[in-house]
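Please check this one:

***
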Amino acid sequence: MSNLIHQKMSYTDLAQFLRDMAQAVEAGDSFEGNIEYLMPLDNPEPGTAMVRGVVRIGNRSGQGSVMMIGTVPGVTPP
């Protein structure tokens, strides 16, 4: 999969990310990606999941960009 560290996300935000990803795939504007979501193991909060993923988008116009969820190991968030 990936070495990204899972990030806590609400089901509402996760569902929106999945809709955005599905629209890009349907439009032929995403060539590859992956997403993983799990129930939080430590102190589960209702309505949240632990998520990581990377999806390429904007590929019809050239190189495109990436939607990423998670934390890169060894990088301190701002």
